[in-house]
């Protein structure tokens, strides 16, 4: 043990004329302090800090009435020099400090499970909301496992030369493909996902359309929009329990009443499974799902539609922030986010919710293709 005592030197300086306190503090923390670190380390300095001035403390009535009079019994008040307040540390325990906790974004302090260095599985991650989620998660330092039936040029351009993005071709209606996805994840990163972004979805495609009714062996749209989120949630529970880890799975819900009921039913299960399950319910979203025919039928207007990036941003909040507990249902419209209560849910309001449209014109556009399909079926049944 070194028997020598540490020597502390405090230097009191005045700010340069015309420099504000905020300018002084930040310049010292991010320019002058780092500039001096190598020289200080070389000369045996183990801690170098700046104390921010905090004059308001000496204007406190309790200080003026109680503490200051007592100080005169001990201190020569004419020669006193005081530093008080927060510290900017640039060398601590002989090591250079590059980040200052007091400069943290308050939003970061709400994060319960940061994405950085964690694995997220995103179904439908090559286009639309899923692609936006892929980009934002990668930007936060996550390892992104993308499961999609095919890639897109936009995804290929973004994912090119990024080792922390892994694409696995898969069909979410084939549950055996999930085994392939998890196997690829464990092969690359020797672990299972920490987060699940369930984004794959269909919106009235020609091959799976309730009113046109082209299918004979089940509804593909139900398999993608309902069965796949439910099955993947169950797999997330199993994988997380197998590795004794906590996971989060926000489900993308677009007019999927079954998913709302599913998430509600699991609101108390996190202590048992280790998986926090939430859902986001956006209004109209400007994605490739809105083809020209659907735009007309569903009164789609780009000016009243949410961007995929905005929806993905709120999905990341559901993933990370502790304020969104298991069972949270987050509605998102042009007016902003709203937590959906369990019962007595008021109708959404504002642009993009349909409430602002003329009911007669909206219903005429919506029902037109349906009425055309039904008209073809009239009188076609034979005894």
Automatic annotation (TrEMBL):
Positions of the EthD domain: 17-50
Keywords annotated in UniProt: Oxidoreductase
Keyword NAD carried by entry: no
Residue ranges the record marks as coiled coil: none
Organism of provenance: Amniculicola lignicola CBS 123094
Short name of one Pfam family: EthD
Family per record: Belongs to the tpcK family.
Signal peptide limits: none
GO molecular function: 2,4-dienoyl-CoA reductase (NADPH) activity
Gene Ontology CC annotations of this record: mitochondrion
Protein's GO biological process: fatty acid beta-oxidation
Protein's name according to its UniProt entry: NAD(P)-binding protein
């Amino acid at each position: 043990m070194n028997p020598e005592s540490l020597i502390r030197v405090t230097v009191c300086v005045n700010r340069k004329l015309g420099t504000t306190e905020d300018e002084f503090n930040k310049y010292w923390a991010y320019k002058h302090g780092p500039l001096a670190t190598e020289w200080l380390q070389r000369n045996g300095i183990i801690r170098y800090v700046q104390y921010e001035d905090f004059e308001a403390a000496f204007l406190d009535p309790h200080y003026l009435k109680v503490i200051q009079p007592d100080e005169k019994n001990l201190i020569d008040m004419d020669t006193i020099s005081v530093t008080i307040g927060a510290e900017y540390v640039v060398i601590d325990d002989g090591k250079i400090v590059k980040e200052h906790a007091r400069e943290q974004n308050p939003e970061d302090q709400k994060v319960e499970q940061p994405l950085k260095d964690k694995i997220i599985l995103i179904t439908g991650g090559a286009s639309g909301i899923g692609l936006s989620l892929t980009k934002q998660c990668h930007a936060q330092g996550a390892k992104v496992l993308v499961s999609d039936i095919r890639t897109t040029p936009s995804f290929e351009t973004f994912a090119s030369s990024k080792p922390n993005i892994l694409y696995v071709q898969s069909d979410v209606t084939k549950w055996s493909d999930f085994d392939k996805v998890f196997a690829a994840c464990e092969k690359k990163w020797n672990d299972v996902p920490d987060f699940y972004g369930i984004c794959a979805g269909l919106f009235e495609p020609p091959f799976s359309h309730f009113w046109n009714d082209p299918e004979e062996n089940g509804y593909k749209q139900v398999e993608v929009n309902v069965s796949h989120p439910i099955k993947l949630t169950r797999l997330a529970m199993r994988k997380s329990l197998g590795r004794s880890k906590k996971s989060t799975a926000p489900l993308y819900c677009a007019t999927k009443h079954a998913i709302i009921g599913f998430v509600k039913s699991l609101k108390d299960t996190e202590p048992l499974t280790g998986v926090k399950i939430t859902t986001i319910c956006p209004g109209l979203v400007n994605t490739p799902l809105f083809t020209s025919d659907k735009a007309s039928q569903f009164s789609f207007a780009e000016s009243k539609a949410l961007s995929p990036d905005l929806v993905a941003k709120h999905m990341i909040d559901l993933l990370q922030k502790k304020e969104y507990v298991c069972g949270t249902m987050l509605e998102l419209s042009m007016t902003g986010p709203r937590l959906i209560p369990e019962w007595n849910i008021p109708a959404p309001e504002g642009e993009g919710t349909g409430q602002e449209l003329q009911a007669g014109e909206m219903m005429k556009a919506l029902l037109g293709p349906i009425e055309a399909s039904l008209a073809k079926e009239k009188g076609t049944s034979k005894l």
